[in-house]
């Protein structure tokens, strides 16, 4: 790319050395920059990228963008001095990738719970009707059926633009992105033009980062504010009218807002909801008339997720018949109330609930189907060195289950004892155990289970690791549970 073009529009304080005519890469990581590239030094939470400028030069960088003094040989490399490198990369990244979000319908999904579930519903339905689609989020980057690992739910601004470019070049008509409040506040979405912004709900989470619910809600609202003011373009907000924050989101955009709800008046409303053990059906009231909807996903929370998806795809211009045709056949997102296949006499679910509201919703999804003489066992852990205020509230919600096993979910550097005692403070009954080692906690759940019991392993979802210290160790709730259950139940209950 022509260097002049890349840097036009960037407020530059001064340039040292000679800028090359063209550059071949744009990077924020000295370890992966290609020769001939521009390295932007980012001050992170852990290290300062300015310390890696020399390494980037050794890798072949031709230009360094910096906001602090750096020690490199300006015979070999040009230094572009700016005030703020975070703002610089936010301007450079979309330009370098040629503003790719303008080439597709971009859908952003935000909210405390349901982002992954709704994003994957949208992606699956779009693919079902025969269009190419991409989605990024907690599970990774799914480029029309091929999954790539990513670091964050909402990636850094450079990765984001690179993934959008990949999706556009692949011919995707739509890209759906899970939008985290961290991502919005840190400007990771700069240069991403969304067409549809979806808000699922807001409840207690991440208060260690945001400080208050008001700040947290405001951060989510940035997605709606960032729809912009170019009212010539057809853009839409989609909000949950049953959530008090739905109205606040509506105030943050000038674009039309479509509402969905179960309890309140809304454009898309579910009535006559039938929650089954193997699926859900409801009657849909919509601006296009009434429809019967059925799907294999369980729990009332998935009715909300389905309504959000129907409203967003309606905003994109897809017919409601086609949308509900797709909904009828889609599987649960990986690790979201996902049933573990087994012919042993137990029902096992792996779930990603790690906020108080999600815990309550996950338990309520199965409680009605439990036999009177069987138990619902709930295994729940929380992360170390993160939001401590939510711990007792998580245990309080988990107490709806008959038996609760309190454990850890990425303890990091925090001792098991402090995590467990803060969880334990919220327990509402005595039927529980505290077991810090998650593997032992999963085995204990199987060992206290009787035939016919239901166990939900919550918090890890799709993840196949446990972070202890700074290291990721392989860990799968489903695999450990099946192994233990085979030992315990196979000989006892399965004849032949
Ligand atoms: C606290 C936080 O936001 N951390 C993010 C941040 O990491 P960091 O600031 O520690 O980065 P750093 O290691 O200091 O590096 C600074 C710079 O030096 C560069 N560097 C570093 C080393 C080197 O050898 N060479 C080099 O050039 C790095 O590439 C980077 O440009 O920048 C990284 C790259 O973009 C992110 O992956 C990382 O997210 C971490 C993994 C994280 O846990 N973030 C959480 C708080 C988060 O953002 N979560 C939300 C989801 C929340 C939800 O559940 O809803 C999310 O969107 O993921
Ligand atoms: N609409 C919803 N309302 C409340 N709880 C939900 C909803 N959808 C899913 N859940 C519960 O929350 C858990 C997490 O769901 P999901 O991964 O879709 O949310 P998320 O917003 O992507 O979460 P995260 O930000 O942690 O990745 C699920 O496993 C389920 O237990």
TrEMBL record:
Domain of life: Bacteria
SUPFAM superfamilies cross-referenced by the UniProt entry: MurD-like peptide ligases, catalytic domain, MurD-like peptide ligases, peptide-binding domain, MurE/MurF N-terminal domain
Domain (Mur ligase N-terminal catalytic) ranges: 26-97
Cofactor: Mg(2+)
Residues passing through the membrane, by range: none
InterPro entries with a match to the protein in the record: Folylpolyglutamate_synth_CS (IPR018109), Mur-like_cat_sf (IPR036565), Mur_ligase_C (IPR004101), Mur_ligase_C_dom_sf (IPR036615), Mur_ligase_cen (IPR013221), Mur_ligase_N (IPR000713), MurE/MurF_N (IPR035911), UDP-N-AcMur-Glu-dNH2Pim_ligase (IPR005761)
Domain Mur ligase C-terminal: 335-461
Post-translational modification summary for this protein: Carboxylation is probably crucial for Mg(2+) binding and, consequently, for the gamma-phosphate positioning of ATP.
Domain annotation Mur ligase central: ranges: 109-312
Keyword tRNA processing annotated: no
EC number: 6.3.2.-
Binding site for UDP-N-acetyl-alpha-D-muramoyl-L-alanyl-D-glutamate: 30, 152-154, 180, 188
Cellular localization per UniProt: Cytoplasm
GO MF annotation terms: UDP-N-acetylmuramoylalanyl-D-glutamate-2,6-diaminopimelate ligase activity
UniProt cross-references to PANTHER family, sorted A to Z: MUR LIGASE FAMILY MEMBER, UDP-N-ACETYLMURAMOYL-L-ALANYL-D-GLUTAMATE--2,6-DIAMINOPIMELATE LIGASE MURE HOMOLOG, CHLOROPLASTIC
Biological role stated in the UniProt entry: Catalyzes the addition of an amino acid to the nucleotide precursor UDP-N-acetylmuramoyl-L-alanyl-D-glutamate (UMAG) in the biosynthesis of bacterial cell-wall peptidoglycan.
NCBIfam families from the UniProt entry: murE (TIGR01085), PRK00139.1-4 (NF001126)
Name of protein: UDP-N-acetylmuramyl-tripeptide synthetase
Record lineage: Bacteria, Bacillati, Bacillota, Bacilli, Bacillales
